[in-house]
Structures are given as C-alpha cells and as structure tokens.
Amino acid sequence: MAEEKRRYFATPIDVKKGIIDLTHGAGGRATAQLISQVFARAFSNEILEEGHDGAFLPEIHGTPVVSCDAHVIRPLFFPGGDIGSLAVAGTVNDVAMCGAKPLYIAACFVIEEGFPIADLDRIVQSMGRTAREAGVKIVTGDTKVVEKGHGDGLYITTTGIGEVLPGIRVSGRLARPGDRVIISGSMGDHGMAIMSEREGLSFGSGIQSDSAPLNALVEEICRAAPHVHVLRDPTRGGLATTLNEIASQSSVGIMLDEASIPVHEDVAQACEFLGLDPLYVANEGKLIAIVPEEEAESCLKAMRAAPHGEESAIVGTVTAEDPGYVQMTTLMGGVRMVDWLNADQLPRIC
Amino acid sequence: MAEEKRRYFATPIDVKKGIIDLTHGAGGRATAQLISQVFARAFSNEILEEGHDGAFLPEIHGTPVVSCDAHVIRPLFFPGGDIGSLAVAGTVNDVAMCGAKPLYIAACFVIEEGFPIADLDRIVQSMGRTAREAGVKIVTGDTKVVEKGHGDGLYITTTGIGEVLPGIRVSGRLARPGDRVIISGSMGDHGMAIMSEREGLSFGSGIQSDSAPLNALVEEICRAAPHVHVLRDPTRGGLATTLNEIASQSSVGIMLDEASIPVHEDVAQACEFLGLDPLYVANEGKLIAIVPEEEAESCLKAMRAAPHGEESAIVGTVTAEDPGYVQMTTLMGGVRMVDWLNADQLPRIC
C-alpha cells in the first residue's frame, strides 16, 4: 500500500512556480497533491486530518449558529489584507455578531485555470494565520478549477459554525429606547483601502483595510454588558445602512452624534475627493454594539481594552421617536436624516 | 417604518424577463429584492425567515458533522437535474456518508452578470424541491455577482450540517476482511449524462443523471446493518477510485465480481464509444456500503426497499490478501487489477 501511494503521489507540485490547471480541481491525484502540499500545511488540525469527506465535530454547547459568505473581492491582495484573511475574518465576524463564539470554518475554493500556485499558497497561509488569531479551525473544504476566462483568479466561500455565548441573546430586533450605540473604531477604512487600490489613488495609498476577526472583542462586550441587545458589523453599506436596518427591525429611532464618530483623516480626505460619505463605506473589522444605558460605560471601557477596539466610541442613542429613522446631530449643530443608501453599492468590495 | 420599507423596495424585480446585474450582489436594495422574490420563496422555513446574518439552529443531538462542496458543473441544466438539485443532493450525501442525518444547508451563489433571473429562479426552485425531498432546511446564504466574463453563469457552494445517527460509526478506515461490498445501483449514470449532453452525443440522449439525496437510504442501511463499517458515495473517479481509497485507508484488499455490478445498457454503450470504463465514471446518486458478512443480506434487502436503492447489489468482498489493492473477477472468469484512475478526471462534472 505504501508503495502504491508513493507511486500515486510521485511528483510533487511546484508551489513556487507552478500554475493551477483543470486537473487540480478534478478530484484526482493533482487535487490530492494540492490539498497535502498547500491546504493541509496551512490549516493543520486534528479534525481536518481525519481526511474524511465530511468533518466530525466535537459537541456544540450553546445554541449552534451558522453563517456563510462568498468572497469575490478585487483585487485579491490589498493594503491590510487579502481575500484569504478577509474570508476567514468576515465569517468569524458574522458568527460573532450572533453573540456567539466561532469554532469551525468550512472553505470552498473556485480557482481560475492559470492562477499562480504561489499566490494561492500565500492566500491560504493568510487564512491559516487569521484562523489561528481567531481561535477557529478550518475543518473541511473543497476545490474546483474553472477554465481561463470563467473566473477571476480566486473566489472563496467560507461557512462558519459557532455556539451562542452563555446567557447572551442579541438580535437586530432588540434595540430599545435609551440604549447607547457604540462602534468599535473608525469608519470606512476597508472600502476606501479597496477603492484607493483599485483606482490607483496616490493620496489614499496610506489607507489600510481594517479587516480583522472580532470574536475576542465580542466576548469582552458580552462579559462587560451581558444585556447587550444588538451586535452587527457595518460591512457593505456602512454604518448608515446597518443602523437603518436595525432601526427598521426594532421599530425605534436612532440619533447619532457626528462629532463622536471616528473617521481617519486620510479616509475622510479620500471620501471627499470621490464624493463619498464615510458612513456609507464598508468596514470589515468594526462592529456596532447597542447596549442598555446602564451597561454602556463599562462596555465602552472593556471594548477599548480589547483587541481591535482601541478607538471605540459611543456615537448615538436609541429613541422612541421617529421609529425606523436614523438621524444625526451634525458638526454644525443641526439635525439631518441619515437615509438608507440610495445609490447602489460598490460591487466586489468583499 | 412600513412606509420607509415600501419606498425602499418599491420596484420589484422582473423574475421572468430580468437579468442579473452587479447591483444584485452588492448587498443593497437589489440584493434584498432578489432574496425576497427568489430565494425566500423557494427555501421558506422559520430559521431562514429570522433574517439575521447568521442562522440560529436548534440543538444538534448526535456528533455534529459538516461538509462543503463548490459546484461548477457545466452545463447548468442536464438530463436528470441541474446545478441546484445537484448542489443540495451532493452535500446531503456527503453528510449522510458520515453515517449522519443531514439537517441544515448554507448556500452561496456567485452569479455572472447577465444571467437570466428566470434561470436562477428555476435552479433555486429545484434546490428547494431537493431540500424538501431530503428533509433538510436551507437556513442561510449569500449572493455575489461578478462581471461578465468572470464567471460561467452560476457557481453554487453548499455546506451541510448534520448529526451522526445513534450508535453508528463509519469511516474509510473500518473495512474488515470478510465484509461485503454493496452498491446501491448502476454505475456511471451521472458522468455519462453530462458527457453526452456536453458532446452532443445523440445515442446517449436517453441517459439521465442519477443525482439524488441518499439520506433516507442511509437511514435504512443503518437500521438494517447497525455495524456498517464504511459509507461512501462514488462520485468523481467512480467506483474504482473510491474503492481504492477505502482499500488503502483500511489496509485491506477488495475483490469485485464484474458480473454483479449493474451498469445500464445505454451507459455501457456510451462508455464503449468514448473509450471509458463505467467503473471510473462519476455517480451522484449512488453509494457504497461495506458491511459485516452477517448483516449483508438484511442490508441488501433494506436497500432494495428504500428510495434510490432498488437496484442495489452485493458486488464484492473485503479480503486480508493484497492490502491496498482492488481486483475483479471478470466476466471472462479471469482476475484483473482495478487500479486508481490513471488519466485525469473530467473537469466540471459536479
């Protein structure tokens, strides 16, 4: 048998100079080599190593949570991350925003013929690093290859499984008048990093995507504010769109204070240049926590001490008035509506 | 709020004549309309309807199992199914082959700009039907759209979650000498249906893909043969490749009996014409059960009475001799090796 196996896997793939061809997705020898030389090396864990088509998981204690995302971001590499770190962090965050501890990830790859294996390796390593940072295991996966001209390098789909933290119950429907709206840092970094990279804007070259796993931050929030009502990550559509969704789902109003919303100077400048409002630009490493007034200060303190929460700020209040509407006290002292995004959102930002 | 929502979702999409554009994947209004008019209608269940980014699931009782697959099959519609039925059935089967009851599915869509919404609707309806047949719920999903020329109509990734059936423990490592090898029906139907369709072979026009969810069949097997050792679906690489994997993982030999392996006449003819061996051609609605000798007859009987198991047959025996090798008593009475697939497998067959 050992000899049989040796014969079958005789020629290793060239990770440095090789390119993906259709055989790497056909489920035969080349697929097995790609798995052992690229994926298994980066994702190594005892569940994946069972080598079964499906993964057997340890018992899940809290309410199980599942979330999935297809990632088609362009470009694949950008300041502050790549499609791999984004795919893992994005799914970790979707699970965490259910008030849950993310545990496992399933990852599927659709690769375009001709893609450099070195780039795939770099992306897969980046996924492994992000998974280790978040404390999640990539337990199963699948790889398919499509002909040149039928993909765009690489698409990654990630599905995350987790368990709700003890005693926590969050939902977009649970915001209550009097609650405070806290965000975990500056708005618009991810979207403007991608746009600057894509448009080749030199003045935006210092902007980094904020892409990061936020599950440790969520655990700190749930410890400091056990009655947290809503957790949400303001990704596509940004803070404004996400708050409108919450205001609508909870039938409450939300009053923001513009002066308290952190926006990095270079992001603000790039937004101004492109005629964009940072409140509508995507974030990939920020969250919104809506917490009862009495837990807001301790929550804010815990967030500022937690990973990826240093710039946290209380930015608004939930109101009984004007249910379904988000408004903002502006820097000029007036009050304006913060509407749903009217224009269509930027494609392929995640 | 109601008015706000009405305004936001004012113009419904045209499911019959509309085409997918980039806004349908951008996470804004068009995405929401696509979800409510196409996906939610076909997948309707109480978990999906919560409308959260992640799905909260009921408690999972047995050992949790997760499996995922990216589906890039070409063509999207084929005799006996389409990419939608295939995606659901394929993932249901991967979970079931762990000796588990599939419960939930997460589905991600990467759609190429210009794709007819009517085709998407047809595929999504087909997913819903297959999910209902299998008794699984599609609980969460994501949709992204890529520019024309960066996809091939539609790619679907499905991740399945299930629970191991009480008392069942199967693994490719558990085949033991004396065990019987049972298959649930004829070999090669899926692969030859796709190839005939793709190559426009008129003589193969009667061949239907066998794509089907096999979880009910697996439950019957586990009832009739509670000590079943291995469950596997012989997809890419066919029966020959899958049995070689099992022989290798379990360090046993396998001796097949060619006369007992069912192959439909038209599949055999199409294979002969194309110079293919049906034992290496993909199946999407068949399984291999390796069971102890004393449970083989009752297992076979139960399989023949179960859905998608009517043509089940005992086709071989596990041996202590020649561990790692699969051999076959041929129709001519000789014995030949059944090797791993040497040629590379057909791309985009699933």
Output the keywords.
about 350 residues; about 30% helix; four-stranded mixed sheet; homodimer; disordered N terminus; 9 helices; 14 strands; seven-stranded mixed sheet; alpha+beta; globular
Task: Write a concise synopsis of the structure shown.
The structure is a homodimer of 350-residue chains. The first copy, chain A, is an alpha+beta fold.
Strand order within the widest sheet of chain A? 9-11-8-12-10-13-14
Q: Give the oligomeric state of the chains in this entry, treating copies of one chain as homo and distinct chains as hetero.
A: homodimer
The run of helices and strands of chain A is HHEEEEHEHEEEHHEHEHEHEEE
Low-confidence stretches of chain A: 1-6
Largest sheet of chain A: 7 strands, mixed
Radius of gyration of chain A: 22 Å
Instruction: Indicate the proportion of strand residues of chain A.
Output: 15-25%
Structural class of chain A: alpha+beta
Show the largest interface.
Answer: A-B, 85 and 85 residues
Shape of chain A: globular
**How many individual β-strands of chain A?**
14
List the helices and strands and how they pair.
Two copies of one chain form a homodimer.
Chain A: H1 2-8, H2 29-43, E1 55-56, E2 64-71, E3 77-78, E4 81-82, H3 83-96, E5 100-112, H4 117-134, E6 137-146, E7 154-164, E8 180-183, H5 189-199, H6 215-224, E9 230-232, H7 238-250, E10 253-257, H8 265-274, E11 288-291, H9 293-305, E12 313-319, E13 326-329, E14 335-337
Parallel strand pairs in A: 5-6, 10-13
Antiparallel strand pairs in A: 2-7, 3-4, 5-7, 8-11, 8-12, 9-11, 10-12, 13-14
Helix pairs in contact in A: 2-4, 3-4, 6-9
